[in-house]
tRNA (guanine-N(1)-)-methyltransferase
Amino acid sequence: MRFDIVTIFPEFFGALDVSLLGKARQAGVIEVGLHDLRDFTHDRHRTVDDTPYGGGAGMVMKPEPWGEALDSVVREDSVIVVPSPAGHPFTQREARELSTREHLVFACGRYEGIDQRVIDHYADRNEVREISLGDYVLNGGEVAAMAIIEAVGRLVPGVVGNPASLTEESHEDGLLEYPSYTKPALWRERAVPAVLLSGHHGAVAQWRHEQQLERTRRVRPDLLSPDLLSTDGSGEST
Ligand code: 6GU
């Protein structure tokens, strides 16, 4: 699988050289291309933004550098990911889906966003997904792209050594993960739950499932009853 990233801050992506994804790159399981948007400008100041039509605060990223940059990396089979607080919420389900694709292109916008015509133009030719990490605002798409690349990359076969560790984790079964313990059995007067030392695999599995349910009910009740979720918080479904 290949990731191409267009950004005005290629330095943000140095972390892709290390850890699991770094090893996967060295092994050739995943490929990463980094592209500086400013390399696709033609003025002395390498301008990538301008004031918004209609007025208002902030700057908008100009369409021409984006068009040249994306033309240089987008293929027929590319999915274009635009990290944006205005996108749909990113989930483990979407990470799984994206991990089956051959080529992801990340368009990392800064300021108040990218001229909408860029998104509309590429949406006529490719699958374009505007994706949000959650209901808060980051300064730009770079950190969000890193998070999405890590979530997707670790699901690509061969990136994570033990595939079983992928299925037994938060969100894969719609529940939060159960609490984990390792040695010593007693630490600062806190004992590991006795069932985990019992050797009864059935009892351990049952306890872990109960813990998952309890934790999810307490911290993320919306995961158990998504029907009760609505945009106005009224609990009324549409
Ligand atoms: Cl994907 N981008 C930005 N700029 N802010 C965000 C976000 C993305 N997700 C949550 N906040």
About this structure: Residues 83-85, 131-134, 136-138, 140-141, 144 surround 6-chloroguanine (CB under 6 Å). Residues 201-219 form the longest helix (19 residues). Confidence is low (pLDDT under 50) at residues 233-238.
